[in-house]
Each structure stands twice: as structure tokens, then as C-alpha cells.
Design brief:
Layout: H1 10-17, E1 19-25, E2 28-32, H2 33-40, E3 48-51, E4 58-67, E5 72-83, E6 87-90, H3 94-98, E7 104-105, E8 117-119, E9 124-126, E10 131-134, E11 137-140, H4 142-148, E12 155-160, E13 166-175, E14 182-186, H5 187-192, E15 200-204
Parallel strand pairs: 1-14, 2-5, 6-10, 7-10, 11-13
Antiparallel strand pairs: 1-15, 2-6, 3-4, 4-5, 4-8, 8-9, 11-14, 12-13, 12-15
Length: 205
Amino acid sequence: MEALQTNLTPTEAQEDTYEIPVGVSNRHIHLSKEDLNSLFGDGYQMAKLKDLSQPGQYACKETVTICGPKGAIEKVRILGPVRSKTQVEILEGDCYKLGVVTEPRLSGDLQGTPGITIIGPKGSVQTKEGLIVAQRHIHMNPEDAKNLGVHDGQVVSIEINGPRGGIFHNVAVRANDASALECHIDIDEANAMNVNSLTKIRLIK
């Protein structure tokens, strides 16, 4: 039987069939060492609950409460390890409950973002910045980026199949040696397209 002919180059054909696993994130917080001490006591060591898909990242057993002008959200999970700056990642719907206004940002891009009150078992802190809604993004290593024909910092679109599937635009590529291939969206976005941990997505440039 004669092979089917296509107009795709080998790289384009690979991109068309390259399925990317997806991780669905709930609201969570990354703490600096200074804020961890203020919330839980000097020298406190967080207890690992489980490892996450990205190398070296893990969910902690500890949770905190975050408070805004209009309300509070309890049991916000801490993710480790500690960071140089505290970062609180919430859902778009949380903004209404807390009474805050923020915007989608990539992790670490905190300049000009609002602060929030964080309450722990030993104290509280009022951050000056660091409250964001996480911009959807794809983690990958340089080899994945080469295979997909993209580069770190590029903004792409992704396609999700299924009865409620569709296309998400404005997805940032985060390519470095410390990353494992996975697309991160939050619960609001996942619910909109009936996404779960078994869903695979396709990248569209």
C-alpha cells in the first residue's frame, strides 16, 4: 500500500501530534523564609505532603489564611521550597471574595502587584506585593522546546479536545533545564473545558 503523502515537514508533523500533559492548579502560596518565620515561628521547617510534577517542587502539609478588604480564604496550601519573595496565586473568582484587583502574571513577575494579609498559627504578615492570578504556561526543558519548535518566553495557543474543548490563547512557554514537560492551568480554566489530570493538549503556534 502506498504511503500517505502530506505537505508537512518532519518537524511540523511531530508538533501536530506532540501531546502535552496538563496540570491543574488550585490557589496556593510560596513563602519567603522571613515570612515563614513570622507565620510559623523562627526556624520552622515545612513538612512535605507530596512531590509535584516539577523537579524539586512539593506541596506542604501546612496551610494559611489569606485576607482581603472584603473577605478571607482559609486553608491555602503552601508549596515548597521557600523562595526569595512571597507569592500568592489565587483564582479569578477569588478576587471577588477577597475584594482585590489583580491580573494574570507569570511566577516571579511581581512588580506592581497588590499585597495581601496572610495569617498563620504564630502570626501574620502584610505583603507589599505578590498577589497574582497565574498566567497559563507550559513548562519544558530545552529538548522539548526544540522538538516543539518554540523558545523560552514565547506566547502560544493550546487546543484541548473533548465535548467542552476549545482553544486557550496567551500561553507562555517556560523552557529551562529544571523543568518537566507540563502545561499549567488553574481550576477555573480547567472547569471551563472539562480538563482533568489525564487530559492531553496540543500546542498551536
